[in-house]
Structures are given as C-alpha cells and as structure tokens.
Amino acid sequence: MSSIGAVQKDGGMADKGGFPHYMIKEIFEQPKSLYATITPRVAAEEDSVHLEDVHIKPEELQALRRINIVASGTSRHAGMVGQYMIQELAGVPVDVDYASEFGYRNPLIGPGELTVVITQSGETADTTAAQREAKSKGSRTIAISNVVDSTIAREADGVIYTHAGPEISIASTKAFTAQMAALFLFAVHLGHARGKVSTERVNTYIHELLEVPGKVETVLRSSSDCQRLAEEYFSMEDFLFLGRAIHYPIAMDGALKLKEVSYIHAEGYPTGETKHGPNALIDETLPVVILATCDRKDEGSVRRYEMSVSNIKGFKKQSGRVIAIASEGDDEIGSLADNIVFVPQAPELLTPILEIVPLQLFAYYMATKKGLDVDRPRNLVKSVMRE
Whole-angstrom Cα distance, residue 307 to residue 292? Predict the structure, then answer.
C-alpha cells in the first residue's frame, strides 16, 4: 500500500487545512496541483514540452502505429479525454480499454505500439497486470501516476508524474484534472515529435494550458452556485449526465462522482445517443445534466454546441429538468436550461478540465446534504490492489 493509505488512516482535521473533508480540500487544491504538473514540463520560452522521464526516442514516437490507453474508473475517463487530445494533435489512432477487461480480450498489440497506463496510486492491480501483458507482447509503455517510484512507474519505459500531492479522499478529483493536463502535455510533445504540431503551435498550446489553473480558480469561486443546486435537487433519485465527443467522458465522471459519494443512481451517456433509449426516461423526475460549452474558434465545437441546444429544447418539451454547464457569456443556454453553471471560455481540448469542477462540487454538496462520509464511501477503497 502506498503512503497515501497511511495518510488516510492517520490524518486529522489539521491535515484538512480547515476544510470539513478531504474531498472539498482536494477540489480546491486543483489550481495548485495543475500548476505543479504543468510548469516543470514547460520551457521558459514556452516553445517546447520537456518530458524527461519518458525514455522513448523521438524516432520511435515518429514511427508509432497505434496507442493503447489502459486504466480504470476516473483514470479511464482521463484516458478517454486523452484519446481525443492525442488523435487531434499527433494523428495517431488511440484505443482506450478498461484495465479489468484488457487481458480478457487477448489484445492484438505488439512492437511499434505504445501502451499508456494511468493510475493515481500506481498500484492498481488490473492496470499493472495490463502493463505487464502489453510489455510481454512487445509494446512500449508509459505510466501516468501520482506516486513516485510506484510499481507502475518502475516497470514502465517512461513515466509522467502528476504532481498533485497526496489525494486522500477515495473519490478522485485533483488527480483527475492533473492526469488530463499530463495527457495534453504528452499529446503536444508527441505531435511536435511527429511533425504534426509546429513550434509556433506548441507555444500557443502551452500558453493556453498555463491559463487553465487560473480559470479553475474562477470556477471554484462559483462553488456557492453548486451548493444551491444540491439544495434544490438533493431529493432526486436518478440523474442523467450528457456530453458529446471529448465532453462525454466528463459526463461519465460527473455521474461516477455523484454515485460514489451520494449513493444516487446516475448515468453518463453520449448526448446523441439519448434518442436510442434514454429519451423514454426523461421527465420531471429525471434531471439532465448536460455539458454545453462552446469554443467559438473551433468549428467542431460550434457544431456540437448547436446540436446540444437542439437537444435541450427537446428535453424541455418532455418536461425534463435541465442543468447546463456552459461557457461564460452564453445567453442562449441561459434562457433554455432550468439551472446553469458557467465556466470560463477555453479551447475545446482544454475545456474538460474546467467542466468537471462544478460536477465535483455538485457531487460533494449532494453527499454532505445527505450527511454522508464523502471521504470514505461505503464498499470502496482508494487503491484496488486485487481484482
């Protein structure tokens, strides 16, 4: 067991920094953990990404045929976000697997491929087993972990540490956003190595990423809005979380956070798939949480946004109650949704880091409203050491 387990057992109120729970403390630590994860990898002139612990030669990165991302739980949701980042910036096909399912499908992987394994603790049994199988078949491996010298880091060909500090609460928050930042750095690094991202674009991406911690601080200042949402919706027994493309894994993690800490049934679903079943459930008893942000500089984002607006109008015709996460200044969504939480404007590939924060806060306040132990949800452990 990692040292994080010992902190969980022995930590007291002083360790919570004046917060009532570790979970809310760690949610508010995200600007700091993001900054700590990003800045050591960025050159002072912001024209390159330095991943010194990734011991894979540039020519190997250039020759990659495919990347496999393997993880469980929230780390897998980070991997799904990373899939969009890597494919967009580096032009490499990416598959994402559940670590617990990886070995059962006899994965067809081998030399010329890279397997990225993600685990906060670095000790998750399913993920370490997946890494060993990938290595046995000739794949190179990179680990993304929050614990230095963890099993998964020691056995990988390279490692990207998320410098998030100890995460005590079982529900992962700051490690998740740090994992997404690490994956973005890797995507930029890989894209540059493969000639897909120019030095000028590297500079732009780094500058945009460095703005993210401050934007997360802005989101955290709206925590009272999320608390009011919890007071309004805490009696609900089911929720549907919806997102498109890179935002779908954020919907999945929002649902996971809610079910983990508040014991409320919640499901994360691709927005466009609601017409293939879930629409039959949507009425005043099933609140819909929809990710409806928009990067106006990105044509794909604008198209996704317009489709989400159309979906919201349809949900309202079914008497659905809609909670929207939207970009600042969006008056159209504000006039349609029953409730809205705004996040700052950001590029499409980085908006997920902002979107998850109000969903984390909502889950936390829902659980505390019910008087539950948010740091130690029943039947769950921080690091799953066996299947």
Answer: 9
